[in-house]
C-alpha cells in the first residue's frame, strides 16, 4: 500500500473534525491531532510534555520546535502507511519545518486537504450550538431540541459555550485568516492543495474527499 501523508486545513466549523474521523476509518490512516497530542504529553508527563506545560502555565504558547518534535515522534512511531495531520502546520514557517523534517526521512506530503466555508456560514454554525452539561449538542436552527433551551435526552438546560459566542468566533476567524490562510497559497503553489466545499452535506464532502484520495493513491503507484 502506498502511503498517504496528508494535512487538513480549514476554518473552525467547516467540518474538518467530522471528516478526519471518517477518513481515518476509511483509509486506516493514523490521525494526528495536535491538541490531543499536546494533552497526552502533558498528562503522561513526558519530557516534552513537562516543557510544554511550563510554557502554558506562564501563559505563553507552546513553541513550534516542541510541537514539531511531538508530531515527528508520532509519525515515526506509527505513520509508516501515512498520516492525517490536523492542527499543524498553522503558519508558513511551520509548513517549511514540516517539509524539511519529512524530507530528512525520505518522505513528503501528498496533499493538503482544505475543507472550506465562508465566514458567515462558520458564524451561523458555531454560534447556534447549544449543549447540556452531559455534552449533548444541538443547533438552534439546524438541529433544535423539542423544547427551547432544554435537552431532549436528560432535561438539563442547554447553554452556549463561551468559545462559541460571536465575539470569540470572530476572533478565531481573524486569527485563521491572518496566520493560516497564507498556507492555502503555499500548498497551492506546490500543487498539493485539494479544495472541498464545507458548506455541502457532510456525506457529500466525505465522498468527494474519498474519491480524491483514491485518485491520489493511484497516481502514487504509477
Ligand atoms: Zn443532555
Heteromolecules bound? zinc ion
| Helix content percent band | 40-55%
Succession of helices and strands = EHEHHHEHEHEEHEH
Distance linking N and C termini? 12 Å
Q: What structural class is derived from the secondary structure elements?
A: alpha/beta
Rg (CA only): 19 Å
Count of distinct strands: 7
Q: Outline, from the CA principal axes? A: globular
Strand order in the sheet with the most strands: 2-3-1-4-7
Total DSSP helices: 8
Strand content bin: 5-15%
Extract low-pLDDT stretches: none
What profile does the largest beta sheet have? 5 strands, parallel
Give the rounded overall mean pLDDT. Answer: 91
Question: Any overview of this molecule?
Answer:
It is a single chain. The radius of gyration is 19 Å and the shape is globular. About 50% of the residues lie in helices and about 15% in strands. A hairpin with a 5-residue loop joins strand 5 (about 130) and strand 6 (about 135-140). The model has no long low-confidence stretch (mean pLDDT about 90). The two termini are about 10 Å apart. It has helices spanning about 15-25, 35-45, 45-55, 65-80, 90-105, 120-125, 165-190, 200-220; strands spanning about 5-10, 30-35, 80-85, 110-115, 130, 135-140, 195. The protein is of the alpha/beta class and about 220 residues long. The strands form two sheets. It has a five-stranded parallel β-sheet with strand order 2-3-1-4-7, sandwiched between helices. A two-stranded antiparallel sheet has the order 5-6.
Amino acid at each position: 500500500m502506498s502511503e498517504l501523508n496528508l494535512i487538513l486545513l480549514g476554518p473552525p466549523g467547516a467540518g474538518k473534525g467530522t471528516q478526519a474521523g471518517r477518513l481515518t476509518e476509511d483509509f486506516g490512516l493514523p490521525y494526528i491531532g495536535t491538541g490531543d497530542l499536546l494533552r497526552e504529553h502533558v498528562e503522561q508527563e513526558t519530557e516534552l510534555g513537562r516543557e510544554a506545560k511550563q510554557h502554558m502555565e506562564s501563559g505563553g504558547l507552546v513553541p513550534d520546535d516542541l510541537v514539531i518534535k511531538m508530531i515527528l515522534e508520532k509519525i515515526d512511531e506509527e505513520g509508516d502507511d501515512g498520516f492525517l495531520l490536523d492542527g499543524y502546520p498553522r503558519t508558513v514557517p511551520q509548513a517549511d519545518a514540516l517539509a524539511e523534517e519529512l524530507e530528512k526521512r525520505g518522505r513528503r506530503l501528498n496533499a493538503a486537504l482544505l475543507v472550506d466555508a465562508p465566514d458567515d456560514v462558520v458564524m451561523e454554525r458555531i454560534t447556534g450550538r447549544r449543549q447540556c452539561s452531559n455534552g449533548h449538542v444541538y443547533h438552534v436552527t439546524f438541529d433544535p431540541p423539542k423544547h427551547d433551551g432544554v435537552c431532549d435526552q436528560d432535561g438539563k438546560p442547554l447553554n452556549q459555550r463561551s468559545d462559541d459566542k460571536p465575539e470569540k468566533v470572530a476572533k478565531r476567524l481573524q486569527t485563521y485568516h491572518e496566520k493560516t490562510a497564507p498556507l492555502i497559497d503555499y500548498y497551492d503553489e506546490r500543487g498539493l492543495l485539494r479544495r472541498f466545499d464545507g458548506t455541502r452535506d457532510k456525506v457529500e464532502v466525505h465522498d468527494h474527499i474519498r474519491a480524491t484520495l483514491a485518485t491520489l493513491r493511484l497516481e502514487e503507484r504509477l
